[in-house]
Amino acid sequence: MSSATKQLRLPPMPRISDLMRLYGLRAKKQLSQNFILDLNVTDKIARKADVFDCNVIEVGSGPGSLSRSLLNAGLRHLYAVEIDKRFLPSLELLQDASDGHMSIYHADILKFDMVKPLKNVISAEWESDDLPNLRLVGNLPFSVSIPLFLQWLEALSTRSGVFSFGRIPMTLVFQKEVGQNMVAEALNYDRSRLAIMAQNYCHVSRAMEISSSVFVPEPKVDAWLMHFIPLKKPAIDAPFNVVEQVVKAIFSKRRKVIKTPLRFSFYYENNKRNNSNKNRLTNRLQLTALNTDKVSKNESLTLLQLNILNTYKVTRIDSPTLLRSTILNTNKITRTNSPILLRLTILFTDKLTKTDSLTAPK
């Protein structure tokens, strides 16, 4: 073990609960703040995160209870990101005791450039079995947990941002229901858009269950500590925004057969046109794209069936609002970056179906 990564021994410090009373700190409901003050629990989280000899970006440090456990776990350096300036004094007290192993950033994690402050990060090739010495850890505010996670998945898909260093593991606290959605397999009632997105890019597992009673203030639901390791190759080989749009369309009508959300996701610009052609096209898209002869519900889909865009080659045009494609023998599909307008011109080689323009509803 190098001198730079010797096990840090923090000096005796006041309890986090005492610091909160000292500084008059209370959780803000509008920021969805729920803190874990029990160091026995935060120590377990730090062990599950496997941070020894690693640089760690902690999201939502709060009063610093998890920060303290991470420092005691033998990390190289802790980058603590906290949006609430009220907690800076307690974090600065911990920083002073960290012997240079901790930096504090008063910032909104959704907008924070996590790469800029990093030092001495050892990268690892994406296709290798090795992982970078960098970890993302946090007790995420429930209100931003899903948008933040999806933002990280998008960066992961392009290997940009912190994921330019390699397949960085993430250990994050979510509401129990969200965690159940993330690990749900096909045919599970909890299967959702979030499950597809998470499992498409990561190996997802539950590290531990956290009772609501350990949080201050106590939420109405328990939480799960989730562990994510990016996959070397996503199951659905397509750009992130394409995958997201397709999965969003399929799961837009919960517990419905796939035909229903597909039919409502794309409709003819010329509303006077007979709907029979649209229904024929929907059936064709369902059966061809999903490789199934059954009328399935969305929660029954596997990642293999959802690999629509492995079969359908993805192309783009310069127009930001209009995208047209031709489905030939290679089954091509396209979409636009515009969240409002999606037009497809589809021509099947067997001449069974031909459409001029389909548009996503506003």
From TrEMBL:
<feature type="binding site">
    <location>
        <position position="36"/>
    </location>
    <ligand>
        <name>S-adenosyl-L-methionine</name>
    </ligand>
</feature>
<protein>
    <recommendedName>
        <fullName>rRNA adenine N(6)-methyltransferase</fullName>
        <ecNumber>2.1.1.-</ecNumber>
    </recommendedName>
</protein>
<dbReference type="GO" id="GO:0016740">
    <property type="term" value="F:transferase activity"/>
</dbReference>
<feature type="binding site">
    <location>
        <position position="60"/>
    </location>
    <ligand>
        <name>S-adenosyl-L-methionine</name>
    </ligand>
</feature>
<dbReference type="Pfam" id="PF00398">
    <property type="entry name" value="RrnaAD"/>
</dbReference>
<feature type="binding site">
    <location>
        <position position="82"/>
    </location>
    <ligand>
        <name>S-adenosyl-L-methionine</name>
    </ligand>
</feature>
<feature type="binding site">
    <location>
        <position position="108"/>
    </location>
    <ligand>
        <name>S-adenosyl-L-methionine</name>
    </ligand>
</feature>
<feature type="binding site">
    <location>
        <position position="34"/>
    </location>
    <ligand>
        <name>S-adenosyl-L-methionine</name>
    </ligand>
</feature>
<dbReference type="InterPro" id="IPR020596">
    <property type="entry name" value="rRNA_Ade_Mease_Trfase_CS"/>
</dbReference>
<feature type="binding site">
    <location>
        <position position="139"/>
    </location>
    <ligand>
        <name>S-adenosyl-L-methionine</name>
    </ligand>
</feature>
<feature type="domain" description="Ribosomal RNA adenine methylase transferase N-terminal">
    <location>
        <begin position="41"/>
        <end position="232"/>
    </location>
</feature>
<dbReference type="InterPro" id="IPR020598">
    <property type="entry name" value="rRNA_Ade_methylase_Trfase_N"/>
</dbReference>
<keyword id="KW-0949">S-adenosyl-L-methionine</keyword>
<keyword id="KW-0489">Methyltransferase</keyword>
<keyword id="KW-0698">rRNA processing</keyword>
<dbReference type="InterPro" id="IPR029063">
    <property type="entry name" value="SAM-dependent_MTases_sf"/>
</dbReference>
<comment type="similarity">
    <text>Belongs to the class I-like SAM-binding methyltransferase superfamily. rRNA adenine N(6)-methyltransferase family.</text>
</comment>
<keyword id="KW-0808">Transferase</keyword>
<dbReference type="InterPro" id="IPR001737">
    <property type="entry name" value="KsgA/Erm"/>
</dbReference>
<keyword id="KW-0694">RNA-binding</keyword>
